[in-house]
């Protein structure tokens, strides 16, 4: 088991990474004060992994709330359902919420924990690669609005993250690849050497070699931990973790939540951000080809759906990084170094969107 | 105009108190960075006071969301309605929410501001005495659940509170009296001399003497500011502001939201807490009579409805101060000094609830 720490003063917490963690009975008890817990999971993950977890929860009073699976259910209505279950179980402010599942479950359960009695403890138990390397760490919680991704939510840090790497064994291939998009992201924004390692070890990662996956999770979480510790509420550097996300969120919302997995949309978005960086003269063509090649080898899409420029722009204008009406984008000044900027020619962005999303009025 | 400050480091903000503030065009511009604002009010207050406010908002792009009036609408569904209006107006993270109304409007609008894009600025523009002396200050936001008051919410501090005392001119008598309950509360928990001042000036307060009201608001806000600055998230002393609220919330929920005004329920709850304090040997009978007398003179109820003990207990068990299953109560060790404690005999509480709520099974 490897232990990392997210250093946020009184809100610091550990990330534990390793096999078998869900079944280790002492781990949770050492990290939460609660005796009442609400286990939030979904219909896909719960049958696979909640028996291991509940076996380790002797001594707790456990209530469960099992949600439908998929991004289409990441709504305020589903949060309301979790809150209703918490009230029905008579939970008080000293309870804890356990989020067992992927990014959707973690985002919903974390937001419910943020809102219940103005905030209760919660623990992230991520069961997808994407959640283990990204969404379970850093305290972003929330839900989608029909007109924009993650528009409703809260910053609410977990008290611990337990990434049981055994859970990756039951992960569908498509979900594994979607998780690799966020792993590749860390290489692109901060760490060219890590990108080279990913390129050299991609077959092992796709083949679910436990050592390779554990290394990828560890490096990814270290990168995220460093950024979040410096900028918890995304006043600055944390925005770099959004490489590919402004385009990606437009893809997810425009295509209909759940049609594209988040990681797939981020992959296409990173390819678009790289293309735009090349057009601005920051990346060489070879760099762009390198980005597209690693994503393609990982089985990820590098081209967006044909939403049309105007629809894409409309969706991008709801991005949380917009300031004073200006869309700010995370771009690459080189492989391994990202910047967040609104300083680009409007016509260059419009041309990019025309080329990539299509110019037809949607 | 009087200016107080809530001292919370980077989240510090001013409380401005005085006549005519809603119409002073420079006040808001100096305190928010936004150019887009969402004005949230209700059908009762908006016709009376939004013209004065919007006249002072030249230079801002103003969207409005006008809610139905009353505690029965303080729900997650109404928050969702505000969030929908914000998305429909294309507001970005650099917008601001303005809450024009009483405690219900402030609680809903503040919670929407807390959740929109994980938190945007908001300004409290309280138009009731209760909101001016209590609910607009301190960052508690949220909504009711059918089974408990204020169970869903967030701590989210406003960037400013502008209490325009002119608005008290249009306040119904019943609302004025409800606000006085919270004013009296500050005397009971912290400041016996202020209670004596209230007793001596109650006719002026009920007669809406502007100087008397301004003094009551100022002293109340100073008291709250001091407590909130020491304990923003209610880890300790802030709970004392909940005198009468555990009983009061049970009354509000049990009677049906809106049947009792919050201040009325708090008044009856403070009388109950005083009675319990007397039974525990802390207050003299003369002290208890003093509490009941000032509440009665203010036109406030001092006896709860006959909900029945078991129903009352069930509701009290959802109180946010419950820890390890124990109901903690704010009680008076003397007039001017409150404590929060779970250290009382169970049978004494049961006898109190029998006597006050009735012993019948509800």
CATH superfamily of the largest domain in chain A: Dehydroquinate synthase-like - alpha domain
Task: Indicate the low-confidence ranges of chain A by residue numbers.
Answer: none
The most extensive interface, with participating residues per chain, is: A-B, 36 and 36 residues
Q: At the third CATH level, what is the topology name of the largest domain in chain A?
A: Dehydroquinate synthase-like, alpha domain
Principal-axis shape of chain A: globular
Average pLDDT of chain A, rounded to a whole number, is 97
**Which H/E pattern describes the elements of chain A?**
EEHEHEHEHEHEEEHHHHHHHEEH
Distance from first to last alpha carbon of chain A: 50 Å
Biggest beta sheet summary of chain A: 7 strands, mixed
| Helicity level of chain A | 40-55%
Write the CATH architecture name of the largest domain in chain A: Up-down Bundle
